[in-house]
Design goal:
Blueprint: H1 3-31, H2 37-61, H3 70-88
Helix pairs in contact: 1-2, 1-3, 2-3
Amino acid sequence: MSVWSQIIFGVQWFIQLVQWVLLAYCVLSWFVAPDSKIMRLLARVTDPILEPIRMLMFRGTHSYRSAMFAPIAAYFLLSLISSLLYRLL
């Protein structure tokens, strides 16, 4: 296995990990208080990904309700990046 394929594999693994964290953040947000320790930890991990998407969605629609779909958009964007990386292998 070449160095580039190892790097791509590592990036894909990281993307998959972030997708799982995003999914956990979304599901737990239904049941756990936002100021709990686990939600603060998950927010620290997911906010760098979600905030730019929220800002773009707000600029496009001028509605804060569209920001609720930021995790879905982030998940699909990460899936697209992972798929493109897979094609490079």
